[in-house]
Amino acid sequence: MGTVEATSLDQVVNTDRYPLLDLAGPAGRAVVDRARRELATLGCTVLRDFVRPELRAALRREGAALAPLAHVDVETVNVYNIAVADDLPVDHPARTPFERGNAFVARDRIPTSALISRLYTHQAFQRFLAACFELPTLYELADPLSGLVLNVVPPGRGHPWHFDTNEFTVSMLTQAPQGGGLFAYCPHLRSVADENFDQVRAVLAGRAEHLVRRLPLTPGDLQLFLGRYALHRVSPVRGPGARHSAIFAYSQRPGVVGSVARPRQLFGRVLPVHHAAEAVRGDRLLD
After folding, report:
1. Which residue range is the domain that position 236 belongs to?
2. Of 1, 102, 107, 231, which one has the greatest count of Cβ atoms within 10 A?
3. How many structural domains comprise the chain?
4. Would 256 be classed as within a structural domain?
């Protein structure tokens, strides 16, 4: 890696604590091993102060400038973000409705000079994430809208219980709200072999508090998460300020583009590349 690229990484990431350029060294191995261990046991790991603390104000300013570009749409959803078929059992979890009112800034609205863009495209960052998730390599999404997004949760709104479509999720809080906006999740609630509808129902009904973990986050913390298998949510935001978080989306194979339905739901628009793409799922779980 060239000196310029290494310097650029040092300017953003707390490389003394997270030596992304020396993952084979003792400190690098320790960070990766801890992330792997916590992902395996808890389904989530948080790398505190991953971005240098002195850059928190810059993260907040960049998010504030981008937030007005978010597509805002209030809609009724369920934990799988699917249409409710008439033949579903009356007690199926998909029949529990929630109102989703968070908003998303698409990747093509985020400048390449932004801190979150510089991280998303940095090869050392991608190699580090792949190592933590125990994958041979990661690829940026070829989707021009979904690869990197800013999630904006305005006051009074939250992100209700849901499962992710990706097996793994990488995110970073860039602006904390004055109140609320707490991330909660139920690790390993379902698997490829078992949807575990009974426990999903129990969580949605508030009867399984013992399964729920709550995770306070600080701007600049990097969160790695197995969101396809963990039911999770962000509680409603309180106070005058919104909650902002960057979502870094990658795939295990190159050239991945979303289907038409998802970008239309999140961004209010689709591009020709979405019509040409065919979404391929690696499992038969409900989305």
Report:
1. 42-109+139-276
2. 231
3. 1
4. yes
